[in-house]
Design brief:
This protein has a five-stranded mixed sheet, sandwiched between helices. Strands 8-7-6-9-10 form a five-stranded mixed sheet, with helices on both faces. By secondary structure, it is of the alpha/beta class. Helix 2 runs parallel beside helix 3, helix 7 packs antiparallel against helix 8 and helix 8 runs parallel beside helix 9. It is 43% helix and 19% strand. Bound molecules: 5'-O-[(R)-(carboxyoxy)(hydroxy)phosphoryl]adenosine and zinc ion. The site of zinc ion (ZN) has 5 residues, from helix 4.
């Protein structure tokens, strides 16, 4: 089955063609980062308008790249939530209009299920069951995954998501949006051991997270240094490293706990923050100790993309699921509500 996937939940227009027999045929992405950077974060209205502009040219591009014609497309998968409503509506309206015009089914995909399944596009995909750490700009969740749509939430962030903590902390330190890659780059120049930041909620049982206090701790440290006349690039890098180490260590401790609790030794990490190489390294070290394995997507498929939506949608379509012609999106949508296939 050849599926066209459309992703428009936030600030990236992603389009891809996935075939259940031949795999991923083409994927194209337009990132709006430059558009939003001057405002220090995503401006929803601008995001929606830009998705409208990019969608059809990107669809033509993937068809060209795959050497396919539109008549070969058998179904359309689009992100129907969670995300920015205006942005989601662009993808949903476009998918439903094309599906109606072409006489093919359309299926709405849960954005986080898309992220969760992105490692399935790699050469050695994980096998069920596994524990998944979903770390994006809007979510930080630990989930036991027994199959597609068989999700048990083990823990989640009580305040900021991990990516959000990277973005907000970066902003407080005068770095550009999005903050995750900026902090990661700066941390490479940092001096290990100069600062040590707290590992929130690791001293009590449970699998929930809280990152907002860490953000304040980082800001206070940066302000104290500046007040003492030290606003050097080196100090900023040292603080970035301490912040990243605290986030990575906290995530690693909680993942280890989740694996122990479930008795599993296979971990999937997905979402924008799973592109972070310090996090990958730390989790690989921890899993080696458990004789287990950590799975993740190539960096391009860790952040938002159309390939993960085409893949996830294809699995649900193959199981016989699709929507009626209504244009329906959801800003909030717990992943455990998804039907099992
Ligand atoms: O999954 P994603 O593209 O969008 C959402 O669904 O939210 O994730 C974006 C988030 C942003 O907060 C960004 O700062 C973070 O992922 N991110 C990173 C890295 N690359 C992206 N965080 C830490 N290290 C990175 N290398
Ligand atoms: Zn995402």
């Amino acid at each position: 089955m050849l599926v066209l996937g459309l992703e428009t939940s936030c600030d990236e227009t992603g389009v891809a063609l996935y075939d259940s027999e031949r795999g991923l045929l083409a994927d194209a992405l337009f990132s709006q980062i430059d558009l939003h950077r001057v405002y220090g974060g995503v401006v929803p209205e601008l995001a929606s308008r830009d998705h409208v502009k990019r969608m059809l040219p990107l669809i033509r591009q993937v068809l060209d790249e795959a050497g396919a014609s539109r008549e070969q497309i058998e179904a359309i998968a689009y992100t129907s939530g969670p995300g920015l409503v205006g942005a989601l509506l662009v993808g949903a309206a476009c998918a439903q209009a094309l599906a109606f015009a072409w006489g093919i089914p359309a299926v709405g995909v849960h954005h986080m299920e898309g992220h969760l399944l992105a490692p399935m596009l790699e050469e050695t995909p994980p096998a069920f069951p596994f524990v998944a750490l979903l770390v994006s700009g809007g979510h930080t969740q630990l989930v036991r995954v027994d199959g597609i749509g068989r999700y048990q939430l083990l823990g989640e962030s009580l305040d900021d998501a991990a990516g959000e903590a990277f973005d907000k902390t970066a902003k407080l330190m005068g770095l550009r949006y999005p903050g995750g890659p900026e902090i990661a780059r700066l941390a490479e120049q940092g001096t290990a051991g100069r600062f040590t930041f707290p590992r929130p909620m690791t001293d009590r049982p449970g699998l929930d997270f809280s990152f907002s206090g860490l953000k304040t701790f980082t800001l206070n440290t940066w302000q104290q240094c500046r007040d003492a006349g030290d606003a050097s690039e080196q100090t900023r890098a040292d603080i970035a490293l301490a912040f990243q180490e605290a986030v990575v260590d906290t995530l690693t401790i909680k993942c280890k706990r989740a694996l122990k609790q479930t008795g599993l030794n296979s971990l999937v990490i997905a979402g924008g923050v799973s592109a972070n190489s310090a996090l990958r390294q730390s989790l690989e070290g921890m899993l080696a100790g458990l004789k287990g394995k950590v799975f993740y997507a190539r960096p391009r498929f860790c952040t938002d993309n159309g390939a993960m939506i085409a893949y996830a949608g294809c699995q649900r379509l193959l199981a016989g699921q699709h929507e009626g012609p209504e244009i329906k999106v959801q800003a909030r949508w717990p992943m455990e509500q998804l039907p099992a296939i």
